[in-house]
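dumping these here so i dont lose them again. two proteins, back to back, each one seq then structure tokens. dont judge the mess
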Amino acid sequence: MSACFGTKRVTTNLVPPDPAKHVNYVRGMVLEVDEFTQEFAYLSGRDRWIAREAIGYGTLRGLALRWAKDGAGRIQPRVTVTSGVALSPCGQLICVGADQCADIDQWLAARTEEISGKFDAGATGGKLDLHVTLAYSDCKTDDAPVPGEPCRSAEDLMQPSRITDSFQLELSYDAPLQAEEDALRGFYSWLRNSLTIVPDSGQSVALGVFSERVRNWETSDSDAPAITIRAGDVPLYATTALRLWVTELRGNAERSGAFRRFKTWLAEVPDGAGGTTTEQEFLAEVRRWTPRTYVWPDAVVVNDSKLGEFGQKAIALWDTEIAPKWYGEPCGCRAPNNTDCRDDRLLLGSLRFNVIKTAGNSWMVDIPVPPSARSPAVDESQRPVLGHLRALEAQLIPTPEAGAEGASSSLSLPVSSCRRVAMGRLTYHPPGETQTTPVFGALAISLVEPGKVHFTFPDFIPPGSAHDYVVQAIASYYDSVSKSQAAVRFGGFESNGFFYKVTRSNKDVAKAELEKMEFQVEVTMIVKPS
């Protein structure tokens, strides 16, 4: 009787290799599978790390999502994804080498009960949203003979010798958790809408106050006053906002976004007076939460009297167990706390369409005739898109046309901005009286004379080489007496503002009538390229 000897080294290391470690090659070291696996994990981890932290994630090229059409241009119940390249949220490069196609009717027919559960009992139609996601995958290929013990089975004689990069396209009811993408969009949208740039004669809000407003942007009041910044201080304040995003806000973005989704999932726990789920059973289910957990198992029904207590303990679990295991880990920086990493799907777009139930009791896409602009539709507004460096340069740096006479190799970076600095609905008020209509920027009528109305605001500086103004005005009557419409034309700038000429039939409108008129005025300042 002969003994069978294995060729694999016995090891108790069942955790994945640490991407922060690489092999210290020493003369005489016996190199086995673990060493090569560790070295690959280090090199691959650094690639993902630099891609994710220094570049970002999103669609790089191609991957257009479309409903298919027949030769006559009619929409078909199929969707296509063109070939292309993307970076996943964990920094994996994904290549889709050929166009892909999915038959939505076939997908629906295989999930009849699932789809029916999304509508009221007996419903024969409804609206459905599906999300198209892309993720990295790999597959073992190229079987080759390997040496081994003589007592092996025939299937053990061959083992895959290569691992090929691949991808996984999915139709999903739930969209990927892209909390950082959502936070990034929200942060800069808030910043753009909150800033009011005034001439250098004005005054910027204190830098410390600005920094605190930036730190609290997620919870800021939508009616909070605008952040006023002098044009000359814009580079300093913009740099400060970017620094705060990198050092403080970005690290919390994914965690806070996931926590909002966790609370939404928690609020949908089945409950009722007859619920018998114990605290231990409930918390065991909570511990299994991931961004893709949306449906509570039928066995979980919490008694109403216990719901508040159980919910508080679930929130405590988030802080102590769930979030540290799943969120806020830079890809490739260290060994992951959770071997499943995170939701590494990339959103390509959302399919929005209506479905109807057929005579055979299965569901299919309802395509209206004539086609509607709303259904079926593709929504790609939430897709993360990653433009390469040259595309960003092209937006900022003008490139001379080839062969253009006098073309210069020098590059200029024009810096310009425009901002509303004053606006409102105004009527004339004698000195000392308060303007009762809505006004921004302390815009006021300073003087009324026959055929002329003069406007001013505190931050007005006569236009020059550094800036200019675009002014728009419309006049309406303060009283309800029907008269022919007066002509309102811009008259020019003055030392403390500007004036408009108001005439009727080429004659100046009387002062008494002008004092009863209401003027809607908007002033935009344009900072010229330096």
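---- next one ----
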Amino acid sequence: MNIKIGIVGNPIGWRILLQQIGVPHSTVQDTLLPEDYSVVVVSDDADDRESEMLRQYLTLGGAVLCSAKVYARIRQSTAQTINIDYCYPPQNSVFRSLGVIDISAKCQIAWNANDLKTNKGSLAAHVGIHPGDYAIALPFDPGALVLDQRSALKSFPSSERRLPFELVSCISKGEIRQLVSQSLEILCHRRGLPFFHIWSFPNGARSIFCFRIDTDYATDEQLMDLSLIIRRNGVPAAWFIDTKSHNKSLKQFAALENQEIGLHCFEHQTFETYQENLGNIHKAQSILHASNIHANGFASPYGRWNAELGRALVDAGFEYSSEFSYDYDNLPVKTQLSRSEGILQIPIHPICIGSLKHQGYTDVQMIRYFAEVIKRKLANRDSIVFYHHPKDGHHQVLDWIFQEMRRERVPVKSMYEFAQWWNMRMISIPEVEFSHGSLKIQSSIQDRSLYIRIAKADGTEAILPIAQQIVLDTVHWEAQPQAWTMPDNYLRMRRFNYRIPLQRTTDALMKVVLRITK
């Protein structure tokens, strides 16, 4: 029996998700049998012939993850079309560890939907609970949504009265990845199979911490003060240089020990055209090169990303970038351009000390905010990537974050180190066969930092080094950690936040005043 996910229909978006999760996968060719694929995922463009294949596959005991549109075609039933802003797990949901899944799209809901609530209060997903119904039908095609490049202003959850906000990816791609991962695990267990995937962090760690610094307009004194805190805490930070502001300070960056230097910009903006973006990047690169500094990573001003910037980053030779208008609060992922693959994206948490400072948070309130974010990320086994501007200060908050990572024993890596490891992980997903209680694993890359996770239907799991054969009866199984669940009043972040238009108007007026008084 192959432990493999089959892809029917357009594979691009589904490959992104399955690579992130780390499950063996391939596109389905001419035949579709339950022993060949543990679960099959389906895009909305599956045709009538493929729908018939899926119908027979389910009849023979296979499992399918698809949209309600495809499910209705397979089951020859109906689906209701509605506009959905977001979904979230109700009480007793099988997806209880998820948060809010922002969709903002026209969707379809299966007639027998029994999980995931919409912003309108109706149930949106069908999770098969009867024998022979090994199917999960979501209100959307996950493979299509992860390719969505829209951005939107969003509020972020906080226990404080004022909610921070930022312009980020319109779609909650991290939540969709978790939804797909949990769905695949459920369906494997329904078939009596173990769920297998390459673990997300080196050496079986439960998370990883990266710290990014955007140097925007900082003074030499501010840069020095921050570097002292970084050095005192032993953090290999990634400094993304605003070269126009710091042309005369580059020797200071070159002298930093055990730090990564990345590129932020020359002009502090993201342009609409390829040529303007590439020209801005080349101008900044030439300034770095004059000081013998090479930047492997890029982070755009204000976190803005568009396809023309994506093309420019490929041609400029970067190995990774980090823009929260493309993705945020997620594991690394390759960006997708119209006709090609982009470079690796390392998503970050988009709310920084500066965001909280804008809302009038005190040090205590900032620490409480980041404590909530860290608690959820550790519970969900997510990477923890924060960012900061030297001019924003609040060094006590940074000290607390760094100390918290030590207390929680979270490994600290530079963003480039994480990018290198993730690229290796992406090409290390093995072929896996399950027979007589054993997993036979064939991988072309042998690296001791690669671990695997195996989960059983009884709620136990094992995270262990990759090996050629694993006999399940000899594995030490442990109960899965308690899942994160949405706190009370969590959904208030999707209510109208009057501070967003108020703050944006105030900021715009301040810019006009500054321009006049210069």
